[in-house]
Amino acid sequence: MKVIKGGVTAAKGFSAAAVAAKIKYEGRTDMAMVYSKEPCVSAGTFTKNIVKAAPVKWDRDVVYSDAKPQVVVVNSGIANACTGEEGMGYCKETARACAKALQVEEAGVLVASTGVIGMQLPIDRICSGVNALAKELDESIAAGNKAAKAIMTTDTHEKEVAVTIELDGKEVTVGGMSKGSGMIHPDMCTMLGFVTTDAAISKQLLQEAVSEIVSDTFNMISVDGDTSTNDTLLVLANGMAHNAEITEKNEDYKKLYEALLYVNEELAKMMAGDGEGATALFEVKVIHAKTKEEAKVISKSVITSSLTKAAIFGHDANWGRILCAMGYSGAQFDPERVDLTFESAAGSMQIIEDGVALDYSEEEATKILSEPKVTVIADIKQGTETATAWGCDLTYDYVKINADYRS
């Protein structure tokens, strides 16, 4: 697998565009489109929040149908959530506008929205935006980057990644973009993710792969513990690499799975590290757990602890908060067997062994915790399973950003 420059336009046959439609923002792009020359096999995962935005309901119906999507259109600024029948109507009108502008099947158009909950979409601007986007579609890496920027809300930077692999003697590419900075606690934020590939794979296997991968990537991140109404991950495969279609879990399936896993994990980590007001990506690895599920539960409990997140912001080696968060996670382990280690680019330091503090240097620990990526390794000495979760520190700016986000 080779990491390359690019995002959603890296795979063959995919193009993208971005425009300033003035949905809510002024002076910046706020609509994006991703288009495939060929109809695609699709897969997706969606928020488990009972309160689901209209685009989530629309896309779920499309992905779970026999439709072969070719286009995704996304707006930022307004979430189209809690908008009643009008919200579903906006999805239909957007799909109709796309079908007319691009000569694609209306039933296969995917839509996504992110932003403020409860506001009605200015559908006239959305439809005008669709027409403008259709004229600007481009297969360049730059076009994909512009699309990644257009879908941002409180994100401080765009998030995109791409890789190539070889399947059946053909070069296959997987690329993606995502957005998310606050209201991030996916349970599949306001989180949106779009992954494209030119691989040929059956719809069933693509969905199986995506569902498994999300469990270990996007569902292992948290910024603030709030699961959004709009969480959506869409994956499109157009088959334009012309590899032999993957219809069983063979070696080619495993290679594609690893590529998809890498792209989704990298996007997930970018989102966690770009949490609202964050200064550090906070990674927690639980090793030697009895089961994978227990490792997941413990690692997520630590990254979601407000006290632990605050300690990371203060570069404070307050390991008691970490052990405490592990203890109330609901997973069973022996606290008197736990080892904890802090790691970063500044070095590595074990701070407790068998549940008791070692004689470590607070000054050195602070140096390690002052890096933009901080890792805690928790060895619970119960088995062979491992899991990793990603979060961020909790800063003053998180409150400032969210205090006046709507107004």
Can you walk me through this structure?
By secondary structure, the chain is an alpha+beta fold. It has eleven helices and 16 strands. It has helices at residues 54-63, 84-102, 123-136, 141-150, 203-216, 251-273, 292-303, 306-313, 319-327, 362-369, 396-403, and strands at 2-4, 14-19, 31-36, 41-46, 71-78, 110-116, 159-167, 170-179, 192-197, 232-237, 281-289, 339-344, 347-353, 356-357, 373-379, 385-392. A six-stranded mixed sheet has the order 1-7-8-9-10-4, sandwiched between helices. Helix 2 links the parallel strand 5 (71-78) and strand 6. Helix 1 crosses helix 2 and helix 2 runs parallel beside helix 3 (123-136). The radius of gyration is 22 Å and the shape is globular. It starts with a strand and ends with a helix.
> How many helices?
11
User: How many beta strands in the DSSP annotation?
Assistant: 16
Structural class: alpha+beta
> How much is the radius of gyration in Å?
22 Å
Q: What are the low-pLDDT stretches, counting only 5+ consecutive residues below 50? A: none
Largest sheet: 6 strands, mixed
SSE sequence, one letter per element:
EEEEHEHEHHEEEHEHEHHHEEEHEEH
Helix content: 25-40%
Strand order, biggest sheet? 1-7-8-9-10-4
**What oligomeric assembly is this protein in?**
single chain
- Average pLDDT score: 92
- Shape descriptor reads globular
